[in-house]
Every structure is written in C-alpha cells, then in structure tokens.
Amino acid sequence: MAKDPKKPIKIAFIGTGGISHAHATGFSKLGDQVQIVAGCDIKQEALDNFCNKWGKDIRQYKDWKVMLKQEKDLDAVSVCTPNGVHCAPTIDALKAGKHVIVEKPMAMNAKEAKAMYDTAKKAKKTLTIGFQWRFDHRTRMIRSLIEKGEFGKILYVRVQALRRRGIPNWGVFGQKKLQGGGPMIDIGVHCCEMAHYMMGSPKPVTASGNTWTYLGNKPMNAMCSWPNWDYKTYTVEDLAVGNVRFDNGAMMSIEASFCAHIEKDVWNVQIMGEKGGAVWDSATVFRDQDGYMWNMNSPVLGGGGGSNGLDWNDIFNTKMRNFIEVIRDGKQNIADGIHGVMVQQILDGIYASAEAGHEVKIK
Ligand SMILES: NC(=O)c1ccc[n+]([C@@H]2O[C@H](COP(=O)([O-])OP(=O)(O)OC[C@H]3O[C@@H](n4cnc5c(N)ncnc54)[C@H](O)[C@@H]3O)[C@@H](O)[C@H]2O)c1
C-alpha cells in the first residue's frame, strides 16, 4: 500500500563503500522525502566516511541482522555490498518487512536471484535491482519503438561492454568467490540488462559461451588508467563472450572484457529487427521508407559525445527516484526483481557453457 507522502521514507544502507554514495546522492535529490537513518558495514572507515558525508546522526552497525532487529521504523534498505553479499541481506531485509533496492548484478547466480525474488513476493515487498541503464533516454526510445512494433520481429541483438584495459583496482572485483565472475557479471550485466529490457524481457532458453584469463592474473605489463590491480588474488575472466537464444526465436550475443586487445572501449547495443533496427550509443534508428534506406538520429538523446542527453548521474538518480516512487506512490517498478532473475539466468548460462564446453539449457 502507498505510504503517507508527507512522511519521509526511512532508509538504511548495507554496505557503505563506493556505490552507496551514488545511492545516497540519488536519495538526497529527493530532499526531505527520504531520510537515511542507519548504515551497516564491516569496515569502520567506510561507515565513518559515509556518515561524515550523509549525516553524523546516522546510526552505525557492523551486522545487518542487528540493524534490522533494532531499526524497527525502517521502510527500506539499499544493499550496496559486493555481489557475494547481495542475497543474504536482501532476504533478511525482505523478511523483516522492508523494501529493498539491491545493486547489480542481482546475485551470484540465478538460484540466489530466484530465492530473493520469491521472498519479495511472499513478503509482498518491493525488490528493485540497480539497473540504471534502462532509465537512459536512448534505452527508453528504442524500447518504445520495439513495443509499438516499429522494428517488426526482433531477430538479433549485439551487446558489447568492452574495456581495452580496465581491471578494477579497488574492491574485490577480481575475486570469483566474492563476485561470481569478472567482466561478464560486472559490466556485461549492464549492457545485457538494457538490451533485454529493450527487447521486452523475453525468456532465455539456451546459452553458449566462453571465457579467458590471460592478463589480469599477471603483473601490469603496459601503462593504463587503472594501474596495479591485485593480480595475486585475480581469479576471474578477462574476456567473456556468449550467445543466448530466447523463447521468441530472437538471439543475443554478448561480449564483455576487463582487458582485450581492441582499439578502444565499447559500450553499446545494436538491435536488428525485420522492419528496422537501432544502435544505442548514437541513438540512431534504421528504416526503409519510400524506396530509400534511412538513418534517423536523435541528437538530444545522448551518446556520440557532446549531447544534451542524460549523463550517468542523471540515470542513476532516476533509478533511485523510481524506487521511492514505487514504494511510496505505487508506481511501476521499472527494474523489477523478475528482470534481475532473467538477466542472471543469461549470465549463468554463459558461464555454465564456458565451463561445459558446449551449449547449455537455461532452467
Ligand atoms: N550500478 C552501478 O553502476 C554500479 C557501480 C559500481 C558498483 N556497483 C555494484 O555495487 C556493489 C558494491 O560495489 P562497490 O564499488 O561499492 O564496492 P566497495 O568495495 O567500494 O563497497 C562495498 C562495501 O561493502 C562492505 N561489505 C562487505 N561485506 C559486508 C558485510 N558482510 N556487511 C556489511 N558490509 C559489507 C565493504 O566493507 C565495502 O565497504 C557491487 O555489487 C557492484 O557490482 C554497481
């Protein structure tokens, strides 16, 4: 049920490291509609930094179970911990009757993701996944054209989240047991979720893929903008590729890298339909009309450099606003848990196929 709009939504954080500040920034844009009342982190320094920036009276905890027990008035929780610590606090918070926004990827694997989704359903609470790219104007424009049938049947979608040399040199992004994987689960997930959303969220049925590790587990051998990552604890892939088949006959290919021998980084989705197509980064649509092929570009939507579209902060803040509007006003949850489950199935399928050496069924 919608909450009284005059009362602020009371939020607590689990994980107060890097991305929690982007969540808090998004909430701060909503003024007194949101009040951050508590934060939990196993690192005192992260908690102190968070409270120094967002409020000295934010109550500090080291254990989210204690926090959930003591903070009886909480409405919602932002889960901003490493991937391996998404499932447990999300389920505990939902069971304690709190709405949850959990960062991407939803979990380590689809099994965890499904358990989180089922718990939210049972508890009748909102579960939102930190998928901000679906709030980008380009994503919305392409999704709307697809929804109206302007491209006809969607045949093939090419997804790329490629870094030439961009191995995170902070956090635990190189540790498989804490993250579930490397670039496929960490950044491939972003472009995959927006592509899947634009396609209308079809059900994935099979996947094939491969992963390779060849640079991240060795000392840095070439100058780069994120130097000196922890190669000794690096257990994830450098490059992953996959092909996914959906129940409506469409296919998606995904390429994701922390490091690859390519000319430059790519962050893009290309859509090919029977009647039309689009490329996301330059907001360009491809059509045939009156005997000619046309490229229609919308320069105000962003991309291609020097645009007046939304930047990363804007789309992130819109994601945080949507979460509040869902729990307070009953608006549609744009990044619902079920989308997180399907995206996780895609990622799981690619990793499982890489391990098995052949195409696998997605359960
Ligand atoms: N949406 C995005 O664009 C985006 C960007 C960056 C990171 N992320 C996601 O956010 C999550 C966190 O990434 P980050 O960059 O903030 O990492 P980070 O390492 O900076 O912060 C994570 C924090 O969680 C804390 N933590 C770990 N285990 C904990 C536990 N058991 N209880 C309480 N706190 C615990 C750590 O001490 C740390 O302060 C990851 O899942 C990542 O994929 C999303």
How is this structure best summarized?
This protein is α/β, with parallel strands linked by helices. The chain has helices at residues 18-28, 44-54, 64-70, 87-95, 110-123, 137-147, 176-179, 183-198, 312-329, 337-356, and strands at residues 9-14, 34-40, 59-61, 76-79, 99-102, 127-129, 154-162, 204-212, 239-246, 251-257, 266-273, 276-279, 284-289, 292-297, 360-361. The mean pLDDT is 95.
Describe the protein.
The chain is an alpha/beta fold. The protein folds into 2 domains: 9-133 and 319-335, Rossmann fold, CATH 3.40.50; 136-310 and 341-361, Dihydrodipicolinate Reductase, domain 2. 33% of the residues lie in helices and 24% in strands. The protein contains 10 helices and 15 strands. Strands 14-13-12-11-7-10-9-8-15 form a 9-stranded mixed sheet. Strands 3-2-1-4-5-6 form a 6-stranded parallel sheet, with helices on both faces. Strand 9 (239-246) and strand 10 form a beta hairpin. Helix 1 (18-28) packs across helix 9, helix 4 packs parallel to helix 5 (110-123) and helix 5 (110-123) packs antiparallel against helix 10 (337-356). The protein is globular. It starts with 8 loop residues before the first strand and ends with a strand.
